[in-house]
Amino acid sequence: MIRTRLLSVLAALLFAFPAMAAGKTIIVLDGSGSMWGQIDGTTKIEIARDTLRKVLETLPEDTELGLVAYGHREKGSCSDIEIAIPPATGTAAAVADFADRLNPKGKTPLTDAVRKAAEELRIEENAATVILVTDGLETCNADPCALGRELEASGVDFTAHVVGFGLSEEEGQEVACLAENTGGLYLKADDAGQFAEALETTVAKVPDPKPEPKPQPASVEFNVRGIARLSQDGPDMADSSEVRWDFIPLDANGEPANRSADGGYRGVFAASVPAGSYRAKARLGRITFETDVELTDDKTTDVIAVLDAGLVEITPKRTPEDTEADTGARVDVHFDGTKDGGYGQTRVWAKAGSIRVTGRIGKATVEESHELAAGETLKLDLVIGSGLVVPSAVYAEGGPEVEGNAIRFEVQDARADINGKRKSLGGQYGPGKQGMDVPPGDYMLYARLGKAEAMTPISVRAGERTEATININAGVLAVSAPGAYRIEFLEGKKDIQGNQKNLGGTYDVEAQETLPPGDYEVLVRYEGDRAEQRRKASVTAGERTEVVVE
């Protein structure tokens, strides 16, 4: 059923190309890893492949169609964008074949993908249309809204349409602007059926989504103004660029339609939209306000959003004496069943009333409760008592120092539990580096390299750097055995049961292990009938012992 509906929708969409634009069209196809998500038990990519092939078989031969794909060749790459099929006539089979081979795996560089499609369409010379189908938001630090404004400001005949799968209203607003800024449509669908219905009732029935506006006498410059205020009696937020306004048309049942009629970021936002019923929404950070409103052509309707909110500005510090924010600190403000925050110097819009502020540096945490009044700016110094442990190690008293990333350091509780286990508060491989953030207190610094382990007590103070060196009391036993199949390290003495503990080994002709001082035995195994060999060896702390077995 889903495939049948999608087939009819995509057919309507593609057959509408000549009416939508006299020039060429490119489909920008999402190849990110999320396309393996399922709709009614079938993956999105399977539905796309099957539907595309059936639709493309019915296209007129003179349709100038191309395909751009992204996220289908590399994981984690923001440059994985491919002009798979340049726009031309007779490309239907090639587009379908490419979709069949598409293997979603990567990120979502949708902004640069649309830009590349526009460049391929040579929009300076031709009328052009791009249809972006995405099930996710931009993940490559690009701004689709800015691209839409740039393309529209260039004065070329370019239109972008965006279809969003399973996006929330807030997520949809992040990509809807790409369509709105170029005169295109944004279509929202939570499942395959809604996707089909959206296309059937919009794209297929719109002969030209970017027609010349009909001249109408304007009785007012704007027919709606959104006015945001932090408190009931407070001033308008006229200078703010952080308030997002959206006016979403309502259908006959009073439910929001699939796209916003108009919107923008202003504390006082004025617009002219077609007369009708709308849901007005204002958003400031994680605070939202919404109300339904009737708009007419002959008057300006003011929608006043009292957000009942204030601003919390937080400077996280390790000690009260610090003068600047700790950039590695995580800060969150909890309010009204939600939270918002960031790292380092943080500012959060929060609902008035009781709020909770939390901070974290490594394992060190702090929590404070405050009262926030509507319209207030609450400035806080949040002291997160954290110290920094910077570890190093030596093989023996007086050296040499342990280098490289093979050694493991951990800051552990000073006291062990009933089973002899100690809780780890932080860890790192290799000496020095960034260090480990832990709360003030007494701890044990633990180190492990090869089969050698050591532990030493340390004390950590808030805002201070504790540099601690631990003696792992170990040496290195290095073995060279030409022709060996496997080299193993054994304890030198057998236990009371006659067992000789195996300390591990490697399949190679050379091996080395870091070991505590003492006597050991090297076992060398060979392939075939050659007998194994054993050699005794002694390890001294801070020294390297080399053994050759021939």
UniProtKB/TrEMBL annotation:
Residue ranges annotated for the VWFA domain, each copy included: 24-206
Keywords recorded for this protein, A-Z: Signal
Pfam families for the chain: VWA_2 (PF13519)
Signal peptide: 1-21
Descriptive protein name: VWA domain-containing protein
Annotated organism of origin: Nitratireductor rhodophyticola
Superkingdom field: Bacteria
